[in-house]
Amino acid sequence: MSCTRILSGDIRARTLANRFPGSSATTTVRPRPPPSGSTSSRASFWAAFPGSSGCGRSSRKRGHAFVVTSDKDGPDCRFEQELAEAEIVISQPFWPAYLTAERIAKAPKLKLAVTAGIGSDHVDLEAAIERGITVVEITYSNSISVSEHVVMMILSLVRNYIPSYQWVVKGGWNIADCVSRSYDLEGMQVGTVAAGRIGSAVLRRLKPFEVGLHYTDRHRLTEEVERELGVTFHPDVESMVAVCDVVTINAPLHPETEHLFDDALIAKMKRGAYIVNTARGKICDRDAIARALESGQLAGYAGDVWFPQPAPMDHPWRSMPHHGMTPHVSGSSLSAQARYAAGVREILECWFDGRPLREEYLIVDRGTLAGAGAHSYSAGDATGGSGEAARFKDR
Question: How confident is the prediction for the chain on average, in pLDDT?
Fold first, then answer.
């Protein structure tokens, strides 16, 4: 029987799984030797996500090795040490094990890269295409989780919730300060960059607030859906942001969206507008965002996505004014974790059994963008600069 090594940001097989620190399944399972009579190498599994223990048990029953770690950054990290034998790598977007072209070159046996969640920009997709590596993610697993988080962050910014909460923590009762930047959301113009699974769910949840709804997307919604939501289509992001009080970003990161929100685009927004970004941090120019908040061009910025992740302690978004940033948690509620853990297990079982993977899970397959990847991504690499994540250890 063949034995695969799985590398998952927290699991060892020759599956390599990458898990974020503090998650529940932290035991490192030592790889077992190949079954008697087998001439194949062990499988190496690494898993770094809650629920990875279930995937590990399932994989080990099949004779595969499953490696789990949260040590993912820097040249001497555990992830780098295990790559040479890994055939499958599993990583979450929340604590991503960046699969750059350089790392892919160090993984000659790598065949499958699994994102335990949504968003595979931590993988150099161009390098994966060139190597014939299949890249998959758990499409739909946390779309609703993220859309709820977006609405929460919009309200938190517009109603000035975080500074008001801080006054209570400090023992104050400063009503004037609390309400000095607080407005009703009703009547505002709100637009989403992309109206796919998350963006359209955001629009549906905002409709009862009696706001004007807008969107821009490479794939226009049907006329029926536009009428149902009362949403206005804009052919490009420039025309949409010019009319919006609040802009929410719900697009994947790829070369076409990298640093989309730079000084030039932010200058085209209404002065005093808000941005909520739960998509990917690198869609925004981090220094341009900080400058816009300091100048008042933006009234607030909130999100849970950074670049790189984890963000170094001197990242400007930690200290810029009027922000509502959190760690990358919008898509990792306990409800979402159960869904994407089940999806990872489904993918692994299909892969080992030689059954086809769901089309909607595919990002790269057979040397080209496929499935959800062909619909939403452009080929290329958005991992440049990810090595800076290693500085988080130096805090």
Answer: 88
